[in-house]
Design goal:
The protein is an alpha/beta fold. Helices cover 37% and strands 13% of the residues. The protein has a 6-stranded parallel β-sheet, with helices on both faces. Strand 1, helix 1 and strand 2 (36-40) form a beta-alpha-beta unit. Helix 4 crosses helix 5 and helix 4 (120-128) packs across helix 6. The longest helix is centred in the C-terminal third of the chain and has 16 residues, at 190-205. The radius of gyration is 17 Å and the shape is globular.
Amino acid sequence: MTADRRRPWIVGVSGASGTPFAAAVLRGLLAAGEDVDLIVSRAARLTLLDETGISFRDAHWREDLAAWLARGADGKPHTFEVADALAGERVRYWPAGDLAAGPSSGSYPARGMLVVPASTASVAGIALGLSKDLLQRTASVTLKERRPLVVTVRETPLNRATLQQMVALDEAGAIVLPASPAFYAGATHIQDLVDFVAGRVLDAAGVGHGLYRRWRGELGGGRPA
């Protein structure tokens, strides 16, 4: 796709636990042929290091992203083949501190934004319009431009303030999608549970995928043989 026709999905990764959810969403977007712009918050780098042992570095982001996306939810490296999907201009990375980055402007072409996982701090920042980093600024831009915004909250329990902020996001037009895996699809592995949540995020964005078995109205239909 030429640069002037490129319209990516922007994926914002905040500091909540749940980096495998973000990896699964990114793989799903790339498998669907979508272009991606990636923003990883400073807190998310710490979570990624803690959950995977991967240091996400600005100067080596493509190499670090490849290692991250190849990793399974069970921690095994080289579970997924992602090298071809990361070639060329399919993926762009913007440092979270760069408030002059492309996605900070409403004139930047984008399909919408997926915040996954979304910490309670990012939920609050987006709901209040704080724009303290590029992730929050881009989410605010997405709302003002009336583009799809999916906020995948990963926290429990939820206090009153966060619940009120989630309602505010819903009223502003965002889709609030908690990271709540289901079991009717016949999950037999941790990756199945992660892929279910990622699939629901992609469903909300209108992106096709085959990450989980859908409910067909038949009891036991998701149970493995």
